[in-house]
Amino acid sequence: MCGICGKYSLDGNRRVVEAEIGRMMRTLEHRGPDQSGLFVDGSAGLGHRRLNIIDLDSGRQPIFNEDGTMAIVFNGEIYNYRELTASLKQRGHVFKTKSDTEAILHLYEDLGEKCLNELRGMFAFAILDRSKKRLFVARDRVGIKPLYYTATKHCLLFASEIKALLQDPEVLPEVNPSGIFDFLTHTYTPGPATVFRNLWKLPPGYYLMAENGGYEIREYWSLLPWFENSNGIRLPEAEDRLVGLMRETIRIHEISDVPIGFLLSGGVDSTATLSFAREEMDNRLKTFTIGFGGQEFEDERVYARIAAKKYGVDHHEMTMSAEDFFDFLPKYVWHMEEPVFEPPAIGLYYVSKMAREHVKVLLSGEGGDECFAGYQTYRNLVFLEKLKKRLDGNREVFARLLGKVNRVAGSEALERYLPLLNIPLGKYYFSRASNPGAPSNHVYDKAYSAGFRSSLGGTSPSGPFRRYLEAAAGLSDLKKMLYVDTVTWLPDRLLLKADKMTMANSLELRVPLLDHKLLEFSAGLPDSYKLHGFETKYLFKKALRGRIPEEILKRRKAGFPVPYGRWMSEKKDFVMDLLLDPKTKNRGYFDYGKIREGLIDGWEKKGEHPQEIFKLMILELWHRSFVDSGIG
Fold this sequence. Notes:
Elements: E1 2-9, H1 18-26, E2 35-40, E3 44-50, E4 63-64, E5 70-78, H2 81-90, H3 100-111, E6 121-129, E7 134-139, E8 148-151, E9 155-159, H4 162-165, H5 177-186, E10 200-201, E11 206-211, E12 214-219, H6 224-228, H7 235-253, E13 260-263, H8 268-280, E14 286-292, H9 300-311, E15 314-320, H10 322-336, H11 344-355, E16 361-363, H12 368-372, H13 376-391, H14 395-409, H15 412-417, H16 425-428, H17 440-447, H18 450-455, H19 463-471, H20 477-487, H21 489-503, E17 508-510, H22 516-523, H23 538-544, H24 550-553, H25 564-570, H26 572-579, H27 582-585, H28 592-606, H29 610-627
Parallel strand pairs: 13-14, 13-16, 14-15, 16-17
Antiparallel strand pairs: 1-3, 1-9, 2-3, 4-5, 5-6, 6-7, 7-11, 8-9, 8-10, 11-12
């Protein structure tokens, strides 16, 4: 795991100097503290910060091909690199290292951009073809590894983190109003946009090719065709196939020349990952868990201990406090680089910090819910859509009746789902983080200032998701949701957090449940293998029965609960001072009298809408870290 960066003159007239690449590299040191390397060739330069995981002795980057006409910088892991290396050697390529990086470079020599089809892993890399004056930049299929880029009048710049791009004097930390709107509406900014004007995420499954004074971005992989083509597999065969794929993906994700460990949440996904790893590894595995004080949330550590005992691992755990949470909050914003509502990320930071004292690589169960439909949101909305079909012309009468009931009952669930009764799923599914019934779509809309509203132009809540929903129009409701979440929520919120918080501790995180072969298999499964009545993750749990403890298999999904709402109440003075600071009030996003009356007062007096208050805090801290300072 590493950090990469580079600069490429689009017209060939602007020379790149080492100092420019050096400034970018310094912001990435936490991603790769073990080694650094850079290469400048007139109108292009590449930079690399390395965290040594594979080929510790000879894997320093950039790496060059046999005649020195091509150079590569790479972040990630290619899990099938040994097979690729053997094949490339048979075709006459000469290797100077034992690294996966060099396998990518020689594969590109042979296949060009089609080399991406042969890679199995997580990656973001750039190859400079010196003879053709061409730059090739690519990101893995799911977006496990981040990659950002921007273009100035003369140059294209790319990097693993936004902070590196902001080191260039021609790249300014200007606010993208639509990105701010997306964050407030959806809890994150769906790609390819960011909250910075003219700074972009390279989408998962895409590559960028720069040459002849310009650049283009093309897609090389999509999960959509796999959703469209059902594999028609019978249930017993699907169970066997799933177990075989799980065993294979865990095995290849264990490739490492340094110690590895496991994040153990006590949920089905992390426990399943550990169970397969236990079959493969003889040495005593290390596992890591975090918990929180208080009674309002289920303690994950109880279930993690059950799993740790069953598999005989060397288990480590810790407790995070409100002080820990708030102490790290400014650094959370600095590492995430964009405002993102993800309180569990701070827990991930601390458990990664503990793990880094023992290992350099962690495996996680991240992605299992998106792969096999584990979220209750999927179950609830599939049920809602079936109900709407049965109601047919009586929806409005039913909605009015439920509205009257809810005025008495005060159910948050009814309040969330009622607005969706008269809207088709293709018009309201803004990934699992948001929909028109979400509080933010009412509270903020009434409080936006006239100036901010004007700056948004035609921005709408559905904007980032519309093209995905239209592309998936022929799919079932469940597959629509899974597809949208795989291309938005997963890379732009969940995996962003996973990368940034572990890299903050110079630690590599691997996510075997997001292996593209496992995703492709899952996408083609019938809906009933994922949602079986009201049971989520049906096939996944069925295939694992007898392998993982029943207490874990049958427990209600808890996510990764962080008591941030209680902690905010305990730190009310800090929160109110931040939100009522004149600097905060003058950002220009809100009519502050309306946002205070509609949101802040309700939280101060009754603790209402803590998620929205946390978002306002994060937005202000982001401004102070990036916009006010002028640099990352």
